[in-house]
UniProtKB/TrEMBL annotation, chain A:
Pfam families according to UniProt: Ald_Xan_dh_C, MoCoBD_1, MoCoBD_2
PANTHER family named in the record: ALDEHYDE OXIDASE 1-RELATED, XANTHINE DEHYDROGENASE
Molecular functions per Gene Ontology: iron ion binding; xanthine dehydrogenase activity
SUPFAM superfamilies in UniProt: CO dehydrogenase molybdoprotein N-domain-like, Molybdenum cofactor-binding domain
Keyword Metal-binding assigned: no
Signal peptide, first to last residue: none
Stored SMART domains: Ald_Xan_dh_C (SM01008)
Protein name in UniProt: Xanthine dehydrogenase molybdenum-binding subunit XdhA
Domain of life: Bacteria
UniProt domain Aldehyde oxidase/xanthine dehydrogenase a/b hammerhead: residue ranges: 17-133
Entry keywords, A to Z: Molybdenum, Oxidoreductase
Organism: Lawsonibacter faecis
GO CC aspect terms: xanthine dehydrogenase complex
E.C. number(s) listed in UniProt: 1.17.1.4
From TrEMBL, chain B:
InterPro entries to which the protein is assigned, alphabetical: CO_DH_flav_C (IPR005107), CO_DH_flav_C_dom_sf (IPR036683), Diverse_Substr_Oxidored (IPR051312), FAD-bd_PCMH (IPR016166), FAD-bd_PCMH-like_sf (IPR036318), FAD-bd_PCMH_sub1 (IPR016167), FAD-bd_PCMH_sub2 (IPR016169), Mopterin_DH_FAD-bd (IPR002346)
GO molecular function: FAD binding; xanthine dehydrogenase activity
FAD-binding PCMH-type domain boundaries: 1-176
Keywords: FAD, Flavoprotein, Oxidoreductase
Species of provenance: Lawsonibacter faecis
Gene Ontology CC terms, in alphabetical order: xanthine dehydrogenase complex
High-level lineage: Bacteria, Bacillati, Bacillota, Clostridia, Eubacteriales
Gene3D superfamilies xref list: 3.30.465.10, CO dehydrogenase flavoprotein, C-terminal domain, Uridine Diphospho-n-acetylenolpyruvylglucosamine Reductase, domain 2
Keyword 4Fe-4S in annotation: no
Pfam families on file: CO_deh_flav_C, FAD_binding_5
Annotated TM spans: none
Keyword RNA-binding: no
Chain coiled-coil ranges: none
UniProt protein name: Xanthine dehydrogenase FAD-binding subunit XdhB
């Protein structure tokens, strides 16, 4: 058995010793350096750019501006391309833009011999603008009399959508019973950034008429396509190489600066050009998690049964569409799925262009936002009917038979309630709810919780396809090649475990080709949507079966026995019924390669087109201590319990949960990109953007309820993104329990808490 | 890659003074934890630097015969925190500078740089104010000394002349002996942080340990430069160690501070912190001075 073993990750030693190669380690000698010139307004138009002084800076090779780029608009999100025009991503930006839509928009670029020359030239570029009023919030953009941010969307609304469940409208349902209790609330989430350790970095060079771009990305095959689209060149003329990467969390599920890098390389005759984005640029000018405002209403029976809910969600898109409306649409789905409305649910969503940083994909894809709204509401409804929040959830949460009426995604395995039981036991829910009742004094404690559900991959909203290749080496070891990417989550390790499981070849004899080179790697859309162990895992399983059969077929010839009577176990060809060793795999391999009679390179390559999906779920419980006069929240104890099916590698699963919980705590307590009235980011650096440090992080506890999922290739389902989802509402609900104060917006910063505690008379 | 036009490593203090005199654009660099950041940001791009990094005569910490503490301007935060002589005499400062940034920053950042930046948030500054520290400057005309309160000229500004070097910080025996002190840094996280507010309190009790003999309350980020609350301090003199004292101090300071409203923190929030931190710092300082609060 190779599944379920806490195998040490295959890249651990190389990453610890520094032997692992990242994009920056692979730069060719004499690489030129590019820097982007960013706009100093948020909304307007570049009238002219004067580069005369900048060109005089020694070491400058070329300066290119928004007046030089191809007149091509292209999409950037890391979605599979749709062959139907109606479902294609929005193409709303050029390589460099005359129409400025965010503060720090890319308006020109300098190519120079080194960083210092490039930076000096950037500072010497003079720009003349026509400036329009900036839109910071959704309301600004909807009310604004300014010119539309994109002429294609005159009212600044990128997309509107609506969904409903049940035969009644919300209003009908709310009036249908005499003694329903009503709740009306607004919950708001903030703009945050991924803060992956390695900023976006790439280098590009031309050879043989092709452009090679080496880049830190989650989605090499998509990057190849978008470079082709943006430059107007055949996709096959582009080669993208993805080495190890220092985190992505969704920001690198977007095509950020690779097309610009490729184009700059073209403009200097194919010489290698490196484009490394600084931390400040990453925070201000790449992608962020959408801030979403949820205006919600609910009608609930006195016994706690939810009868109807209504949601209006407005998502702040920032300047460019990127992943766009997919985020808030996903949020509305989660809001719908998580609770059983006895009679009606209505949701209306808008995604609105503004002039802040562009919202894109970020771990959870709209669900952390939706979960904050849904789970704050659950606690507020429980309080309204005087019910224990855990009991409220048992009564109302989605059950094992739930199937989404629109997408038809369902639980093929269900562990949500078991997770709640396990987590409640771990934290001591009942005792703490009782113990912390009716406290007084400046320092008080509380316990809170939040549940969530999450799909596994993107089917049926979008295409799910994955390919895998296995090649036999002369010594009987295997080259495993995936289109799916290792982005720090441990994909390489679990793919090896899966390949070992389904071929009978020991994990130690399977070598994974970690880097993707789009010229040679099998096709896969990449690491996002918590999809790879599920979707790409199916490709491993399918390929492994074919590969094993081919080996056995060859061995059958050598042994003059029928292949059906043979099996491959522990790297040996064995008698299928007795298990007796017959032939080492190494001997089969060397014979297959060098036989004068029948030479064959044994290999297999298969595509798995996945048309299944399944819900993962889970819960977070946390205990906090609130220092009221200081506005400080200290997390005393916290646990996430996950229903993610079979764990391929329990240690890696636990690590994944730790990382997500840390991200959730930052979301809950401190992280927020702040903009001034001109949509200028005030804190695009890691001093003022309060990412939690290890000193702020409590012991993180990760537990699991392992219900095998019949649709998962090895009983597994999503775990990549879910750990980040339930933490923030659990913290908020714990603060509510401790203080009686319901804070309805993220993050729970000290200043906000002091204001709220003062209003509540606690200070 | 840093955009540094010229770099001169001084051999000793007089050599550094000469190098500064020779180049009106030159700036001092010691630990580099601020200068390099500003160079990277482009604010100091193309700068000319004179380095006094780790000059032996600037890194020492010693106690003079009359008990005066002398801390070299290039002593790092870690040097100060780990110094036994300081730990027994002015633990408040050892603690305060241990709140700076991160271990890496504390190993290279210096107290001279911290003070000479002139910023109100410097973690060493409010404790030095509460200790009545004296700044020693060495320049072309020799050495001059002035109280730390006179060193600050405004936000980001000190009275240090272009060719002067902060060579030492001095604290007289009478300013620390028999005082208990405590510094609270209020940040939004527990490390890698700049103070939202800092409060340093030094208190000396009467011999019977029942009353305040002398009190010093200093703040960072409660005004454009670090400051003391002299009126509150003098009102507290002679008061018994009870709840009235804590109320008087935590209320009194509100009338003296002038925090500003900014996106980092509102004035109202800072005032709340001023009041609460002074109460908490005073309580701890009294305990350290051997007293007990009878609330």
């Amino acid at each position: 058995m190779e599944i379920g073993i806490p195998k040490i990750r295959v890249d651990a030693a190389d990453k610890v010793t520094g032997a692992a190669k990242y994009t920056g380690d692979l730069e060719p000698r004499d690489c030129l350096v590019a820097r982007v010139v960013h706009s100093t307004i948020a909304n307007g138009r570049v009238v002219s750019i004067d580069v005369s002084e900048a060109e005089k800076v020694p070491g400058v090779v070329r300066i290119l501006t928004c007046f030089d780029v191809p007149d091509i608009q292209f999409p950037t999100p890391g979605h599979p391309w749709s062959v139907e025009a109606a479902h294609q991503d929005v193409s709303d930006r050029k390589l460099l833009n005359q129409r400025v839509r965010v503060y720090g928009d890319d308006i020109a670029a300098v190519v120079a011999v080194d960083d210092v020359a490039a930076a000096r030239a950037v500072r010497a570029v003079r720009v003349e603008y026509e400036e329009y009023p900036a839109c910071v919030t959704v309301d600004d953009a909807l009310n604004s009399s300014a010119p539309p941010i994109h002429e294609e969307k005159p009212d600044n609304v990128l997309v509107r959508s609506a969904l409903s469940v049940g035969d009644m409208t919300f209003d009908e349902a709310a009036a249908s019973e005499p003694d329903l209790l009503r709740l009306e609330k607004t919950y708001e989430t903030q703009t945050v950034q991924h803060c992956h350790i390695e900023p976006p970095v790439s280098h590009a060079y031309m050879a043989g008429g092709k452009i090679t771009v080496v880049t830190s990305t989650q989605i090499p095959h998509i990057v190849r396509r978008v470079i082709g689209q943006a430059l107007g060149i055949p996709w096959g003329d582009v080669r993208v190489v993805k080495p190890y990467i220092g985190g992505g969390f969704g920001n690198k599920q977007d095509v950020l600066y690779e097309p610009l890098n490729a184009w700059l390389c073209q403009q200097v005759g194919g010489r290698c050009v490196k484009l490394e984005i600084s931390r400040e640029e990453t925070l201000a000018n790449t992608r962020v998690r959408h801030a979403i405002r949820f205006q919600v209403e609910a009608a609930v029976r006195p016994d706690g049964a939810v009868v109807a809910r209504r949601l209006r969600a407005d998502s702040n898109q920032g300047g460019y569409a990127s992943h766009g409306h997919a985020i808030v649409a996903n949020a509305a789905n989660c809001f719908k799925q998580l609770y059983r409305d006895r009679k009606a649910l209505e949701a209306q969503c808008r995604t609105v262009y503004t002039n802040i940083a562009t919202g894109g994909a970020m771990r959870g894809y709209g669900i952390p936002q939706a979960d904050f709204a849904a789970e704050c509401m659950a606690d507020d409804l429980a309080a309204l009917v005087g019910m224990d929040p855990l009991e409220f959830r048992y009564l109302n949460c989605m059950g094992p038979d739930y199937e989404d009426p629109h997408t038809h995604v369902k639980f093929n395995s269900y562990g949500l309630k078991a997770c709640m039981e396990k987590g409640a036991g771990f934290i001591g829910w009942k005792e703490l709810r009782e113990k912390y009742r009716g406290q007084t004094g400046p320092v008080r404690r509380g316990v809170g919780m939040a549940i969530f559900c999450y799909k596994t991959g993107v089917h049926p909203i979008s295409l799910e396809t994955a390919s895998c290749r296995m090649l036999l080496n002369q010594d009987g070891s295997v080259q495993l090649q995936m289109g799916a990417t290792e982005i720090g989550q441990g994909a390489d390790t679990v793919f090896i475990q899966m390949a070992a499981e389904c071929t009978g070849i020991p994990a130690g004899r399977i070598h994974i080709v970690s880097a993707q080179d789009t010229d040679t790697a099998p096709f896969d859309t990449g690491a996002y949507a918590s999809r790879q162990t599920y979707v790409s895992g199916k490709a491993v399983k399918k390929t492994g079966a074919v590969f094993k059969r081919r080996i056995l077929d060859y061995a059958a010839g050598m042994l003059s026995r029928p292949a059906e009577a043979l099996d491959l176990r522990g790297g040996e060809i064995v008698d299928a019924s007795s298990g007796a060793a017959l032939l080492p795999l190494g001997e089969v391999a060397v014979t297959a390669f060098y036989s004068l009679d029948k030479s064959v390179h044994i290999s297999a390559e298969e595509t798995s087109h996945c048309k299944e999906n399944t819900f993962a779920s889970g819960v977070c419980f946390c205990e906090v201590e609130v220092d009221i006069p200081m506005g400080k929240v200290k997390v005393l104890n916290i646990v996430n319990v996950h229903d993610s099916g079979v764990l391929i590698n329990p240690k890696l699963a636990e690590a994944q949960v730790h990382g997500g919980m840390s991200m959730g705590l930052g979301y809950a307590l401190g992280e927020e990109l702040i903009y001034d009235g001109k949509a200028r980011p005030l804190n695009p650096n890691l001093l003022d953007y309060k990412l939690p440090t290890v000193m702020d992080t409590p012991k993180l506890n990760a537990l699991f309820v392992e219900v095998p999922d019949p649709t998962g290739p090895f009983g597994n389902k999503a775990l990549g993104e879910p750990p980040a989802i339930p933490v923030a509402p659990a913290v908020r609900n714990a603060v509510l329990h401790a203080t009686g104060v319901a804070v309805d917006s993220l993050p729970l910063t000290p200043q906000k808490l002091v204001e709220r505690f003062t209003q509540a008379g606690l200070i | 890659m840093y955009d540094i036009e010229r770099f001169y490593r001084a051999k000793d203090v007089p050599d550094a003074v000469r190098a500064l005199e020779a180049d009106p654009d030159a700036m001092l660099i010691s630990g580099g934890t601020d200068v390099l950041i500003q160079t990277r940001e482009g604010k100091l791009a193309g700068c000319s630097l004179v380095s006094i990094n780790q000059l032996p005569e600037l890194t020492g910490i010693r106690i003079e015969e009359d008990g005066t503490i002398v801390i070299g301007g290039a002593a790092t935060f870690s040097d100060i925190t780990n110094n036994k002589a300081l730990q027994s005499r002015i633990p408040i400062l050892c603690w305060a500078v241990d709140q700076v940034g991160s271990p890496q920053i504390r190993n290279v950042g210096t107290i001279g740089g911290n003070v000479s930046n002139g910023v109100t948030s410097a973690d060493s500054a409010s404790s030095l104010f509460a200790l009545n520290a004296v700044v020693e400057l060495t320049g072309p005309d020799g050495v001059r000394r002035l109280p730390i309160a006179d060193y600050y000229a405004g936000p980001g500004k000190t009275v240090r002349q272009h060719s002067e070097i902060l060579t030492a910080i001095r604290i007289a025996r009478a300013d620390y002996e028999n005082y208990g002190g405590h510094y609270i840094k209020y940040g939004k996280r527990e490390a890698m942080e700049i103070a939202t507010l800092g409060c340093a309190v030094c208190v000396k009790l009467t011999e019977d340990k029942r009353r305040v003999d002398d009190l010093r309350v200093a703040f960072g980020v409660a005004a454009p430069i670090p400051m003391r609350c002299h009126e509150t301090e003098s009102k507290a003199k002679g008061m018994a160690l009870d709840a009235d004292l804590l109320d008087a101090v935590s209320q009194g300071v509100l009338a003296e501070v002038k925090p500003r409203d900014s996106w980092r923190a509102s004035r109202a929030f800072r005032l709340q912190l001023v009041s609460e931190l002074s109460r908490r710092a005073l309580s701890r300082a009294i305990t350290f001075a051997g007293g007990e609060i009878h609330a």
